[in-house]
Q: What sequence folds into this?
């Protein structure tokens, strides 16, 4: 659930871990609902015969496009109404199969003050119920500084430096 | 497999494509319910006086708005008798890479940079390009990594997000 308050950059420490976002177990109904919502008809997400026999996959796969929504949601909910998820990146290194339950995690690995705001860098990923990592990645979230101005919206990236 | 014909796809930006539908309340509801995110910013009661100026779509919603326009050829019906059709419909603005078209595809990952939400009623445009195509040998065999860069804007030209997606074409 989205936080009602935005953390100040000053109060974030390297090593902090966000409360994990749990999704699932993700059934064929979840995958079908997602495919329909985005009008993506890739058969490996709902046609088991095609996935296994034609594409030689182990089972129906949880869409990467589905998993990436969860990563953004975790960060966005933590950033609250006054923060901004600026950058998110990840690789789908391993498959997640239908029926798995997923947890998105993120840990603060760096901080940098920029013009008028603070930038918090995260390492992140998605693990299943067995703790297997599938989606290593990173992100940068902009937060206001205590006593500082609100973040601009639309977001204006600070100059590199 | 990376022939000169394949390499020729790398580089040029597509024409700007306009999503066939604007950001619709019902489409946002279905999307938000599918991802199980009941953020009140995505609902019709989000106030116009808030930070975003009214109800908005989830950050990645515009990335999925390039859909088949009404009255255009139907790839599902056209391929109803093709057992090898995997259901993947290439984006309208970027040509399919013909020499790789028969290879199964997986999502390899993405990088996104967000600037603004799309509000209900706004139109969305995209332009994209093949930024890179590389062959990679892995323990699971040969893979072709296809990198697509996209830039999504509102119809008024305001930048919404940039994306850099990697598609994996698997040589079975």
A:
């Amino acid at each position: 659930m989205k936080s009602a308050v935005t953390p100040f950059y000053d109060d974030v420490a390297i090593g902090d871990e966000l409360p994990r976002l749990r999704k699932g177990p993700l059934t064929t109904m979840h995958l079908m609902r997602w495919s329909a919502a985005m009008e993506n008809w890739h058969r490996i997400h709902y046609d088991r015969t095609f996935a296994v026999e034609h594409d030689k996959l182990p089972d129906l796969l949880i869409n990467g496009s589905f998993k990436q929504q969860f990563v953004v949601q975790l960060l966005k909910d933590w950033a609250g109404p006054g923060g901004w998820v600026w950058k998110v990146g990840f690789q789908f290194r391993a498959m997640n199969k239908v029926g798995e339950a997923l947890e998105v995690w993120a840990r603060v690995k760096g901080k940098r003050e920029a013009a008028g705001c603070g930038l918090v860098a995260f390492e992140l990923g998605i693990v299943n119920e067995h703790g297997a990592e599938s989606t290593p990645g990173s992100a940068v979230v902009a937060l206001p500084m205590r006593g500082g101005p609100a973040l601009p919206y639309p977001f204006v990236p600070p100059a590199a430096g | 497999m990376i022939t000169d014909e394949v390499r020729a796809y790398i580089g040029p930006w597509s024409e700007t494509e306009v999503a066939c539908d604007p950001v619709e309340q019902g489409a946002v509801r279905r999307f938000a319910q599918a991802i199980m995110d009941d953020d009140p910013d995505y609902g019709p009661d989000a106030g116009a006086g808030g930070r975003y100026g009214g109800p908005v779509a989830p950050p990645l919603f515009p990335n999925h708005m390039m859909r088949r326009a009404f009255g255009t050829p139907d790839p599902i019906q056209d391929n109803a008798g093709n057992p090898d059709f995997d259901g993947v419909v290439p984006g309208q603005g970027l040509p399919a890479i013909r020499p790789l078209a028969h290879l199964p595809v997986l999502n390899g990952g993405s990088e996104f940079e967000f600037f603004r939400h799309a509000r209900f009623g706004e139109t969305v445009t995209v332009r994209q390009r093949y930024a890179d195509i590389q062959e990679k040998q892995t323990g699971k065999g040969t893979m072709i990594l296809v990198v697509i860069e996209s830039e999504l804007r509102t119809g008024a030209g305001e930048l919404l997000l940039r994306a850099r997606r990697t598609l994996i074409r698997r040589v079975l």
Remarks:
- Chain A has three helices and five strands.
- Residues 9-26+62-143 of chain A form a domain with the Thiol Ester Dehydrase; Chain A fold (CATH 3.10.129.10).
